[in-house]
Write a structure and sequence with these properties.
- The longest helix has 29 residues.
- The protein has one domain.
- It starts with a helix and ends with a helix.
- The radius of gyration is 18 Å and the shape is globular.
- 74% of the residues lie in helices and 0% in strands.
- It has 231 residues and is mostly helical.
């Protein structure tokens, strides 16, 4: 469980650095983030997964396009998903969670949340914020729909992260009725803009592909948490 959280955290932080840090300072920012992840993982007796996370994040950054240009397909996402699945399969919620786990408070407003689960949730949310956008852009570039074309629905870069985090949270809390309402509301809000593109259907295709990929990414993260804590 904690291994998957560290991998997702590493990839998510790398994408946030790529988005917000100027190119001249990215090398230092990447090194600082890797060092912090390594130190934190050492305190949780999961240092091996820190090295895995750094390697996966490096491949991710090199293989995926940024906010503009490039076409990588979905194989980097498959690599991240495979590493996360292996981590959950090997280690669920551990009994011995290291010094940081021992210092972690036993209670929370949501009940008893272990350190491993907390790290996974932080990693998953970090991944869903910007890396989810990278996944959606890769999916759209994989076909004929261009995410950077004038037909792209504006606001998706902000709405997408909020939507994924909300889907992730509502799925974990079992609020499926509210989840369905949120997804339906998005379609209702977007319908007038989509309907104006009846001739080519590009907006509708963009909306459907982007939304489905975004939702599946969030649901996949929720599934990993459910699987890791089921045992």
């Amino acid at each position: 469980m904690i291994g998957a959280g560290i991998v997702l955290l590493g990839v998510g932080v790398a994408d946030l650095i790529r988005l917000y840090v100027p190119s001249r300072g990215r090398g230092v920012a990447y090194a600082a983030a890797a060092l912090l992840i390594l130190i934190g993982a050492a305190g949780a007796d999961a240092v091996v997964w820190a090295f895995v996370a750094v390697a996966v994040a490096a491949v991710w950054v090199l293989a995926t396009p940024g906010s503009t240009g490039g076409r990588a397909g979905l194989w980097p996402l498959i690599a991240v998903a495979a590493a996360s699945f292996v981590a959950v399969a090997l280690h669920g919620v551990r009994v011995d969670q290291g010094p940081l786990g021992e210092a972690w408070p036993a209670g929370s407003p949501l009940g008893a949340v272990s350190f491993d689960v907390a790290v996974f949730v932080v990693g998953a949310v970090t991944f869903l914020v910007e890396s989810g956008n990278v996944v959606v852009r890769a999916a759209l570039r994989g076909g004929e729909v261009n995410a950077d074309s004038p037909t792209a629905l504006k606001g998706g870069r902000l709405i997408g992260p909020l939507e994924r985090v909300l889907v992730f949270a509502l799925t974990l809390t079992g609020a499926f009725t509210l989840l369905a309402a949120v997804l339906a509301a998005k379609g209702i809000v977007r319908f007038p803009e989509i309907s104006r593109d009846s001739a080519l259907g590009t907006r509708a295709e963009y909306f459907l592909i982007g939304s489905l990929v975004s939702w599946v990414t969030a649901l996949g993260a929720a599934f990993l948490l459910w699987w890791g804590t089921a045992g």
